[in-house]
Amino acid sequence: MAEIRAFIAVKIDERIREMAASLQRTLSRGDSRVKWVETNNLHLTLKFLGDIPEDNLPLYYQALERGVSDFSPFKVTFQGLGAFPNLKRPRVLWMGVREGKEKLSALSKSISSSLVQASLLEEKELKSNRFSPHLTLGRVRSQKNLEDTMEILKDKQNILVGTMEINQIHLIKSTLTPKGPQYKVLKNFSL
């Protein structure tokens, strides 16, 4: 049975993508080794699924329809920059979500619950679901020469980026290539 790598996400509107790209350019000054996320690939991940059987896609579609059925469009505000696991040893550089954070968390939980009910996700994953809404800007390849990037990031920790409306989610197929991941939306689900 063929498998595909997939995740569930919110696509970012053009204005926020442009602001994120501008921040990436600012952060990339200096000699740091960070793999920046391509502007067109910027998204808010609600649930990473990993490799799933392609034959099960209709079941995922049904579960996602149920998972979003109680939600209507809402706004999120992007504000602040940070790093996982922390600023001292960053591995992922991100843009935060302020307004709408709770609704995004509830949406992620509803989707995961629906996947568990459809036996497409193990219940233990639901219990260990520590969802932290963020927009990944880049992944740190080396801690070398990272000082300038981290100084800029700390300086912009509270930057207000903008607000957008979330009115749909997407099931996305991710194909890993030497040039980076390529994403293809398999299906949209309206809130």
Structure characterization notes:
The protein starts with a strand and ends with a strand. It has five helices and nine strands; from the N terminus they run βαββαββααβαβββ. The longest helix has 17 residues, at 101-117. The chain is α+β, with helices and mostly antiparallel strands and 191 residues long. Strands 2-6-5-4-7 form a five-stranded antiparallel sheet. It is globular, with a radius of gyration of 17 Å. The model has no long low-confidence stretch (mean pLDDT 93). β8 (168-177) and β9 (180-190) form a beta hairpin. The protein has one domain: Cyclic phosphodiesterase (Cyclic Phosphodiesterase, Chain: A), CATH 3.90.1140.
Notable characteristics:
single chain; 191 residues; alpha+beta; Cyclic Phosphodiesterase, Chain: A; five-stranded antiparallel β-sheet; four-stranded antiparallel β-sheet; 5 helices; globular
Q: Name the strands of the widest sheet in spatial order.
A: 2-6-5-4-7
Write down the secondary-structure element order.
Answer: EHEEHEEHHEHEEE
What do we call the CATH homologous superfamily? Answer: Cyclic phosphodiesterase
Q: How much β-strand is present in the residues? A: 35-45%
Shape: globular
Total number of helices? 5
Q: Approximately how much helix is present in the residues? A: 25-40%
Task: Indicate the low-confidence ranges by residue numbers.
Answer: none
Q: How many strand segments?
A: 9
Largest sheet: 5 strands, antiparallel
